[in-house]
Amino acid sequence: MCTQAPNEVDVTGPVPRELQCSMCNQSLCRPAVHGLGDLDGDSIVTSQITASWTAKLHLQCALWSPEVTEDMQDRRILLNVAPAVRRGRALRCKLCNERGATLGCFQEGCPAVYHLQCAQSVGCQLQPHSHEVRCPQHSQSRRQIEQELGRLSVPDEESEGRTFVPRKTSRKNQQVNIHQG
Q: Are 137 and 112 in contact (CB under 8 A)?
């Protein structure tokens, strides 16, 4: 996806718009973040936002946006990417004050919203399996979260004790292309 090799990208200057993630505004030539689950950090998603705008973004940035879900039959298809990108362009990150932030604190009434990298760097609590985010002010200990989510567990032999957190989904299917970097 990158037209430059990662070691040729000027990290001190501005990243050209065509090489920026439409959510985090960072270079597509590098992974969004490290250490958040088993996602391939080099994966890039393209999505038609308007007739004249095709957005490019990190797969991680897309998947951490609450409205984006994976199609149940084909995990290569992401749903609701365009609405997530449009919503993010209207919001500013609490840490860096740049547009494109889509990760809001899951605490009801909290206005904090971040880019994925900013959430990680400021110390937000990031739950890789449910993609829940809690700002530093509303972070809880891991034990408190497990107790809280334990009420949603489905303890049968198929679930292997995993916790399932329901996520809102939309019936509108939108196919996006995922490219391996």
A: yes
DSSP 128-175: TTTTEEE-GGG---HHHHHHHHHTT---STTTTT---------S----
Per-residue model confidence as pLDDT tens digits over 123-147 = 999 988 888 999 999 986 555 666 6
Residue 61 near residue 102, CB atoms below 8 Å: yes
Token pair 């985010």 is found at 133
Q: How many CB atoms lie within 10 A of CB 138?
A: 16
The candidate with the shortest Cα–Cα distance to 152, out of 160, 140, 163, 144, is 163
Within a 10 A sphere around the Cβ of 142, how many other Cβ atoms? 10
Tokens of 112: 């904090």
Whether 114 has a pLDDT exceeding 50, the answer reads yes
Give the HSE-up count for residue 180: Cα atoms under 13 Å, Cβ half-sphere. 3
pLDDT digits (tens, 9 = 90+) for 17-69: 678 999 999 988 887 777 665 555 568 889 999 999 999 999 999 999 999 99
DSSP structure class, residue 92: B
pTM over 0.90: no
User: Within a 13 Å sphere around the CA of 133, how many CA atoms are in the beta-carbon half?
Assistant: 27
